[in-house]
What we know:
By secondary structure, the protein is an alpha+beta fold. It has a single domain (2-84), classed as Alpha-Beta Plaits. It contains 3 helices and 4 strands; from the N terminus they run E-H-E-E-H-E-H. It has helices at residues 14-22, 48-60, 78-84, and strands spanning 2-9, 27-32, 39-44, 63-70. Strands 2-3-1-4 form a 4-stranded antiparallel beta sheet, with helices on one face.
Amino acid sequence: xxxxxxxxxxxxxxxxxxxxxxxxxxxxxxxxxxxxxxxxxxxxxxxxxxxxxxxxxxxxxxxxxxxxxxxxxxxxxxxxxxxxx
Length: 85
């Protein structure tokens, strides 16, 4: 399973939030971004329960707002191509 999260941080806390999130098991990628959100996180897990645990850990980090985007399989995207190989 793969999910993406978009987070908002308090002003000047992006580096600290990124550092904390990058140490969480299951976080594949975390980057600062520009726009409506401050931080992008890519998460992978073997089961929905593990995914929920990872998301809960990320939400405990000092982020002011978050939005979780679960990947939808079967629509022909990159994830589907990776599974087929």
